[in-house]
Amino acid sequence: MTTPSGPRRRLVPAYLATQGRELAPGRQTLDRLSILHAAADLPAGLGGEHRQLWELVRPGALTVAEAAAHLRLPVSATIFIAADLAERGALQVRAPIPSAQPVNRDLAERLLSGLRALK
Description:
This protein is mainly alpha-helical. The protein has a single domain, classed as Arc Repressor Mutant, subunit A. It contains five helices and three strands; from the N terminus they run H-E-H-E-H-H-E-H. It has a three-stranded antiparallel sheet. The longest helix is centred in the last third of the chain and has 13 residues, at 75-87. It holds the Pfam family DUF742. This is DUF742 domain-containing protein.
């Protein structure tokens, strides 16, 4: 009998990672595109998901959505875990980089003609 080689299911349901809470502390500052950085040592007494997230972002930075994909957790559950770590000072959260604004075409053309005139 062969076993399927597809993605494995988590043994612990995602809602248990949030400890049954409905609102994450600091939820208003976290977005799926918020950037996470490990800030300090991991505080004692945190669950396995907290440790996994902290170790995941320790070498660099990831967005909440990327971290959720690596942890195989829903983004909403990852927000809870990240908020817990940020509240304890083990994680820094930075707002996502805003989208670029459209370039004013008239201004760009005037700038280009001014540069050409400098020749």
